[in-house]
Amino acid sequence: MTIDLGAIEIARRVNAGEVSALELAREAHGRIAERDGAIGAFLAETEQLARRHAERVDGAVRAGQHLPLAGVPLAVKDNMCLEGTPTTCGSKILAGWIAPYTATAVERLLAAGAIPVGKTNLDEFAMGSSCENSALGRTANPWDLSRVPGGSSGGSVAAVAAGEAAIALGSDTGGSIREPAAFCNVVGFKPTYGRVSRYGLIAFASSLDQIGPIATSVEDAALVYDLMAGKDPLDATSVELPAEPTVTALREDLAGVRVGIVREFGLDKLEPDVRDVYQAAYADLERLGAELVEVSLPSADYGVATYYLIAPAECSSNLARFDGMRYGLRVEAPDVTGTYEATRAAGFGDEVKRRILIGTYALSSGYYDAYYVRAQKARTLIAADFARAFSACDVIACPAAATPAFEFNAKADPVSMYLMDYYTIPMSLAGLPSLSVPCGFVTPAGSDRPLPLGLELSASLFAERSLLGIAHAYERGTRHAASRRIPAIARAGAAS
Amino acid sequence: MSATAERSGLTVNGVPYEVVMGIECHVELKTQSKMFCGCRNLFGAEPNTNVCPVCLGLPGALPVPNRRAIELVVKAGLAFGAEIPAFSKFDRKNYFYPDMPKDYQISQYDMPLTMGGVVRFWRADGTQGSCRLTRIHLEEDTGKSSHAGSRDGRIAGSTYSLVDFNRAGVPLMECVSEPDIRNAPDAVAYLEMLKRTFVALGVSDVKMEEGSLRCDVNLSLRPVGQIEYGTKTEIKNMNSFNSVGRAIESEIARQRGLLESGVRVVQETRGWDEAAGTTHAMRSKEQAHDYRYFPDPDLAPIEFGGADLERLLDELDGLPYASLERLIEVDKLRVEQAHQIVDTPGLFAYYTSAAGISGRPQAVVNFLLGDLSRLANETGTPVGASGVTPQALGELVSLSEAGTINSKTAKELLSRMWVQGGSPQAIVAAEGLGQVSDASAVDAIVAEVLAANQATVAEYRAGKTKVLGFLVGQVMKASRGKANPTLAEERLRARLDASS
């Protein structure tokens, strides 16, 4: 079906009049109807909105306009505002809230002709690495329905992996785009902090949150990124730098590219079959012309601890507004304080409460210097490590996650879940552009289902062009992404 | 208790005590739009009409700082000689309240826009006082709650509350003083100096009745000579400078009473009750809030300096302090008059021009604050927009001081010129309104008056000398007001006394 051809080809066909945007919208909703019962990627479908946008796009195309995402079915993570649609953050506390405005990043893609097909599931307020923390639904990994899709952008990633949308938006705070992308064999890209406007993205940790594209190819991800990036007057942290198009800078080989391999991320910590895949990936990089150089990130080991002070501190403040006074859930009590307490007790899930508690503690008088300030210092050291490393290499390559997708309820201990982001958090703390690109499969013992792994490639601040170019060359030279058309859902009986 | 008593004679059980006060002022800035969004900054609109996702704190909305508001605060600081750090930042002050949309307030904690500075003011007796500023920082205002169902509109006993978010996000400048103030009149003089400076700079309207200036006074007493501060209370809810003065006097008396009877002063916030003329306890501050301040990650640090600072310094011309200094210290005007001139828009420029022409500041002020202010009140036209130009007033003062016209003529001329304009010199010359100071001319009129009032002359000569005033009046009348009254009296007396 056309939806499986990727954003660039879909847009080419729609712009050429070979297929209409309305047909693409129908295809997407047909796929959702057929597959999403098993996958659970979507919290809400937006059929009417999709139809309206499709008609607008078809009209524009008929009028001779060229739209770079004409008719491309887009799934939006449900922590981004889309005017007129329920926006929940996967939380009970936002039950019934209809966003009265649209996030800048979403707006820019809609203006480019994308068709919003629905809002996707996530760990509550983007806090989690498996999508299991959603209060509103369970999302399964299209490659093995007994496993998680990763998180927190699990719904967006699963939707793209299952062919329910051609592209999706995720948000990445400590790995929330890259880890699920690795688990579901799609490309997930977190741009440099400040490249894409956060206006309309419901904040988890403001200094880390970044919206990014999820796609079936680096080229599609680059196109979506190009259309979203750039200064937004509504986001004071969005950068003024001109965002040069990356989609025109994609390369076919890695001649002259220095790829940094992080000494502290030695592959010997991994399971042998996983290690083999990454060793093969590094070998592929060399085969394609890259020079592998060892780099050191001595402070990266503190990444997870640092992150779990800064992100909760910011979230404890960001989530204060969900108090039952103006929108969302309200649980009445005799007085205001009681209403706050009852509302928040009923509205937030355990993980959100845990992080609000940690963050409140870290910011408290008497503890602030010991926790929040020290975490900020560690963050500075981690960023300095990367700056040093990038003087010796163009990109850093490492696993996006230490394991493939795990089974539901496998990580009951919160800390074991936190450690899933060991390889993604340092880049987030440093604000770097970083992506996960498919790099091979492992098949767990006793299973006949191969599970994908992702190679994480990261570059220095604002080096998106170089990063996406190198990732594209790797993808072309390996073709692991082409394996996406065998997800479990297709074999689970659905005729497509 | 009078101001003098506070300054010099406050005692607690016979021991000399002094009052220690610091004042925190919240001033709403006069900007077109709010602090972090494009909504209009307007007082008095229909509730919840000037609102958007940002100032309502809707999920996903982000603040973008208002550059003009930052500049206004910097200007306010520069006016008092504050230091402008090259680097400043916004922090979040976290606490839950229904009129605060995000349940945190964007404020500034440890790196305010301006640091230090001194506010100098004049007391009624002509001496100068001063109060150091700690800092001025910028924050966003909250919404406004109103409570329904209780008798007095307070939250206690109310059945529900309403919130108007029009005020939420209005730029608010907090101006914190050092504890330098020792009495109520100085507190008021300090506040008035802040007000006239902020108004002159266009920083704020400073209307206490509309809440664009709100001030809290921290007040404690201590024995004279003691370095440690006594336990302070914070007084709130004053809605005029007059009530600030009254609230301070009342709180001094209350704390003094407590100390005299050996009762500890409790650190607390006290509200001023205008009708009762007393303060009452609002909430205890013993359990201090932990606001968990931290740098707002949505806002980049503010860098200020170089060309921006130069430009703002250039905008500081004509500060009220400089005007007052000239009026009081150079022109030797009374403090009250100087304040009146500086506090009336346009009057200082008018004054300097008229005083420059006449060289007689006090005479110019007498006309300006007397006849001209009266005419301005009667007609609703500011002096500067009337027919009386500063040049005309200058000329009039010169004519009057030279004795060319008398005060009655001067008054009449002002009323005429107010409407018609024109030069007093030209009018006096054309209409022969010049005062008659020629002795022989006055003598002739005196002779006429004496001849026509034989009975009165007899009374005078019989010892009833107070009828002289009547006779002077007759001379003035006969001269159609032009006779120099001093000369007329002198010639009358000479004739009456000589012939007796």
Provide an overview of this structure.
The complex is a heterodimer of chains A (496) and B (500). By secondary structure, chain A is an alpha/beta fold. Chain A has a domain at 2-251 and 435-440 and 449-491: Amidase signature (AS) domain (Amidase signature (AS) enzymes), CATH 3.90.1300.10. Chain A is built from 16 helices and eleven strands. By secondary structure, chain B is of the alpha+beta class. Chain B folds into three domains: 3-310, no CATH class; 344-431, no CATH class; 439-498, Arc Repressor Mutant, subunit A, CATH 1.10.10. Helix content of chain B is 40%, strand content 19%. Chain B is built from 16 helices and 17 strands. In chain B, the strands form four sheets. In chain B, strands 1, 2, 6, 7, 8, 11, 12, 13, 14 and 15 form a ten-stranded mixed beta sheet that branches. Chain B has a three-stranded antiparallel beta sheet with strand order 5-4-16, with no helix packed on it. In chain B, strand 14 (268-273) and strand 15 (278-284) form a beta hairpin. At the A-B interface, helix 9 and helix 10 of A face loops of B.
Summarize this, please?
The complex is a heterodimer of chains A (496) and B (500). Chain A is an alpha/beta fold.
Per-chain topology:
The complex is a heterodimer of chains A (496) and B (500).
Chain A: H1 7-15, H2 21-39, E1 42-45, H3 47-62, E2 73-77, H4 104-111, E3 115-120, H5 154-161, E4 167-172, H6 178-184, E5 187-190, E6 210-215, H7 218-228, E7 258-262, H8 272-287, E8 291-295, H9 303-318, H10 336-347, H11 350-363, H12 369-389, E9 395-399, H13 414-418, H14 425-430, E10 434-442, E11 451-458, H15 464-478, H16 488-491
Parallel strand pairs in A: 2-3, 2-4, 7-8, 7-9
Antiparallel strand pairs in A: 1-3, 4-6, 5-6, 5-10, 9-11, 10-11
Helix pairs in contact in A: 2-3, 9-11, 9-12
Chain B: H1 3-9, E1 11-12, E2 15-28, H2 67-79, E3 87-88, E4 91-94, E5 104-107, E6 114-115, E7 118-122, E8 128-140, E9 144-148, E10 160-164, E11 171-177, H3 184-201, E12 213-223, E13 233-236, H4 241-260, E14 268-273, E15 278-284, E16 294-295, E17 302-303, H5 306-314, H6 320-330, H7 335-343, H8 347-358, H9 361-379, H10 390-401, H11 407-420, H12 424-431, H13 439-452, H14 454-461, H15 468-478, H16 485-498
Parallel strand pairs in B: 13-14
Antiparallel strand pairs in B: 1-2, 2-11, 2-12, 3-17, 4-5, 4-16, 6-8, 7-8, 8-11, 9-10, 12-13, 14-15
Helix pairs in contact in B: 3-4, 6-7, 8-9, 8-10, 10-11, 13-15, 13-16, 15-16
